[in-house]
Amino acid sequence: VSAVPLTLVNGQPASQLAALDRGVSYGDGVFRTLRVEAGVPRWWDAQIARLTHDAQHLRLVCPSPEIWKSDFDTLQVAESGVLRLTLTRGEGPRGYPFPAFPQPTRIVAFWPGAQTDSLQSITVRLCDLRLARQPVLAGIKHLNRLENVLARAEWHEADIREGILCDAREQVISGVMSNLFIWHDGVLKTPLLDQCGVAGEARAQLLERAQRAGYEVRVCQISLQDLFDAQELMLTNSLALLWRVARLQTREWLTPVISAHLWECLHA
Amino acid sequence: VSAVPLTLVNGQPASQLAALDRGVSYGDGVFRTLRVEAGVPRWWDAQIARLTHDAQHLRLVCPSPEIWKSDFDTLQVAESGVLRLTLTRGEGPRGYPFPAFPQPTRIVAFWPGAQTDSLQSITVRLCDLRLARQPVLAGIKHLNRLENVLARAEWHEADIREGILCDAREQVISGVMSNLFIWHDGVLKTPLLDQCGVAGEARAQLLERAQRAGYEVRVCQISLQDLFDAQELMLTNSLALLWRVARLQTREWLTPVISAHLWECLHA
Q1: What is the reported pTM?
Q2: B7 to chain A nearest CA, in Å?
C-alpha cells in the first residue's frame, strides 16, 4: 500500500483541514475503513449505514449516502486499495459544547495497493493494555483510538501480525485492528461489544453469512481460557477479511478447521 | 472570547493541518489550555512541563520549552485571552503503528478576550455519563475527549456552568472541564486521578499553594455522599482559576467558607 493517498476534504481535492477542527481537538468524530477491489468498495451500503449509525450515536449529522458516493466517484478510483471515510463535528467555538450550527467535516482518503486475496495464518500476541469499559462508546468506531495506538506500540516483532485485547475484567474483546471469533465444540463465538471494542462490518458480515451457511453462531462473553481451549481462532477486518490464528504465545493451531470455509463465505 | 483565533502550525502562521494527521485519525496527541493576562501566559513553565510529561507518557517526542516559547513569541500577543497548545504524533503511514520517523505537529492557538478576575459562584449538575476507568491514560490531557464532549452535551441550561463526573464505580472524579475540591471538617480534598480524569495545572497549583498557606490537603477517593456532605465545593481550571459551587441539584451552599481565600491563593 502506497504512502501517498488521494484525499478529499468536504468533497474537494485537499490534503488539509482546519487546525482547530474538533476531530483534532477532541477526537470528536467517527470513521470507517473499506477494502476496494478494482475500484469497487466492498460492503459499501453496509459500511455507510454503520458510519451513519455511529455518527448519530454521537449526535453528529451524517451526510447522506449520496454525498459519500459522490465523494468516492470524485476520486475516480479504478484500482484496488484502502478507503478511509472520516466524519468530524467540524470547527466551532473553543470548548466542549457542540457548535450551535455544526458544519461536519468529511475526509475521504484512498491508498492504492492490493490487499491479500487468500486466507493467511498469522501469529498473534496478548496485549498488556486492558480496554476501559465505557458502554456509551462501546461498539462505535470513533476517533478516540489511543488505546489501540498504545496497544499496537507494545510489540515490534515483524512476524507478530496482531494483538489480542482484553478489558479490565479480563474478558477477551478483539484484536487491536480486528474482531475476534473462536470455534469451539461446533459453535462459532464472538465477544459481546457492549462495554468496549469496535463493531466491525466484517464481523457483522461473518455473523450473518456463517449463520446462513448453517453454522451455530453466538455473541457472548469469552474468557482467556476459552481462547486457549478453542479449536480454531480467527480475526476479521474489512481489509484482510479473515485471518486464521496459527499461534498465540505458546499455543499453536496447526491445521485449519473451518477458517478456509469462512474465508470463502466472507470473500463471496 | 472572540471566535477568530490566531493560529500557528509548526511555528508558521497557518489555519490548517494535514487531513491525515494522527491527531485527527486517532486523537493521538496531548494539549494544554493556558490563561493569558496582558500577553503573559500564567504558569507557563509548569504547563510546558505538564505537556512534556503527558507527551512522554504517550511516547511522543515533545518539542523543547524554547520552541513553544518561540511559537508564543511569534504570535506577538499583548492582550488577555486563552492559549491552547496541542501536540500530535503528526502524519504517518496508514494504521495504528507509530511512524518510524515521527514528525510531531504542534498547534498553537490564541483566542483574545479577558477571563474573569474574581471569584464566581456557579450552579453545577451531576452528569449521567460515567467516566471509564483506564489507568494507562488517567491524568493525561490527551486528545481523546469524547467523554467530555458527550458529558457537556447533557445540558443546555445557560445557568448551569459545569457538570460533575463520576467514574463507573460512582467515585467522584472532576468537572467536565475542571478539577474538583471539597472542604470538609478542616481538610481540603481532591479526587485521586489514578483511574480517570485530567490532572490540571490549576489543581496542582491549588494543592501546593493551599498546603503552603497552612491548609491540610488530601488527595483521596471522594464519594457522591462526600460531595453533598461537604462544607464547600470548588472547581479549578486554568482559565477561571477557581469557581465556588453555590448549587448542586437541590443542595445549596449559601456563603463562602474558604473559597475566597483559595481564589486569592491561586490568583497571587
Answers
A1: 0.97
A2: 8
